[in-house]
Design brief:
By secondary structure, the protein is of the alpha/beta class. The chain is built from 3 helices and 7 strands; from the N terminus they run E-E-E-E-E-H-E-H-E-H. Strand 6, helix 2 and strand 7 form a beta-alpha-beta unit.
Length: about 130
């Protein structure tokens, strides 16, 4: 019977143990310099994930795949260059501690709010609703 501390082969990825950090929204990003940068992963997040690299697998907090998918202030995306640079800080720190990380990708759909979206546009699932009322 394997224990939590035994390694595990997950497809092409070799995990050093069977402990998994689940995706947990932390709302710790920085604001990008440009509006198109979105919310950007930073050193604080790199430290946070690096500290947890003893887990066999980290699944990072939910991460926007597109500006229209942003649902909460200070949550990261992975659609701009600035965000990708920020994530490289995180992955470098996780790898430095011998860890492995996946990213949880999301698009919040209708749960977004115009105050969080580019040009204060309506959430994706609500667009055109007024036209039909
Ligand atoms: C029902 C439910 C589902 C959640 N699902 C996710 C998720 O899929 N991804 C994510 O990054 N955060 C998700 N969260 C938010 C995290 O769980 C949240 O960061 C965590 O519960 C906060 O824990 P803490 O404040 O005790 O540290 C979810 C929260 C709830 C209540």
């Amino acid at each position: 019977m394997p224990s939590l501390f035994d390694s595990y082969v997950l497809g092409p990825v070799h995990l050093k143990n069977r402990i998994v950090l689940p995706p947990m929204t932390r709302t710790r990003t920085s604001e990008g310099d440009l509006p198109t940068d979105g919310d950007v992963p930073n050193e604080l997040m790199a430290t946070y994930y690096g500290q947890r690299a003893g887990a066999g697998l980290i699944i990072t907090e939910a991460t926007d795949v597109d500006p229209s998918g942003h649902g909460y202030a200070r949550t990261p995306g992975i659609h701009s260059e600035a965000q990708m640079r920020g994530w490289r800080l995180v992955t470098a720190e996780v790898h430095r501690h011998g860890g492995t990380a996946f990213t949880q990708l999301w698009h919040v759909g209708r749960l977004a709010h115009s105050s969080l979206l580019p040009n204060r546009q309506a959430p994706m699932g609500d667009r055109g609703r007024d036209a039909h009322c």
